[in-house]
Amino acid sequence: MRTVTVLARTVRAEWARLWTVRSTWVLVVALTLFVAGLGALAGYDAAGGEDAGYGGLSAWEGVRFVMLFLLFGLVALSCVAAASDYGTGGIVPTLQWTPRRGVLLAGRALVVAGVSVLLAVLLLTVAAALVAVQATGLGMSLCAGSSILGDAALVVGCGSLLGIGLGFLTRSTAGSLVSAIALLVVLPLVLGNLPYESLRTVAEYLPGTNAIYVVFGEGIGEDMTIASARSTLFAWAVGGMAAGGLRLLRTDATR
Description:
This protein is mainly α. 80% of the residues lie in helices and 0% in strands. The radius of gyration is 19 Å and the shape is globular. The two termini are 33 Å apart.
């Protein structure tokens, strides 16, 4: 019972910490404007093309690509939220407030990943609504997008947990961001296009490759499936949190 009480207190503290940092608001506002702009452009193109009368489901399909931008932006938010304490020295008072490091890890993961998933769902809905309003009026069925919103929640949630884990593991905002970009963009792109089967196989198991497969249903491997892609993303999220949590629990916060 006491653990639950401490966790609830930690969640409240992490919520306040997240929203009292200027960088959080900057990232959220920038991402909102960017996603809204993408949705408006997609709606404008749909309204002026041959598919101007497409149904509500297509409005959701038309903004699938927005998920990738949400993933990159919200993983960046997660890396900053997890690692910024170490750069400012705020990790010391944070651990004085919550000396049970496992509880701190759980509280930060719940808040940051939860906020990331909620933002992804809301912003993807805004983008789809902008497409539907311009192309088909107000007739978009939100129920038609339930599977796409589920994919967005999974991709962003796993990416956010990976970013949090990298933040605690590297203890550096720059280091965690570079690591996340490498795993999500650079390595999948480079290894997946090299003429070596072994390296292409490695690329199949990277989080970026599997995120793209979940979003678009396309991958570099013939054996990839939606189930395997989702499982791989989940494994990366668990692995990232385990690696970051192990360093948080086993090493001094100032090292």
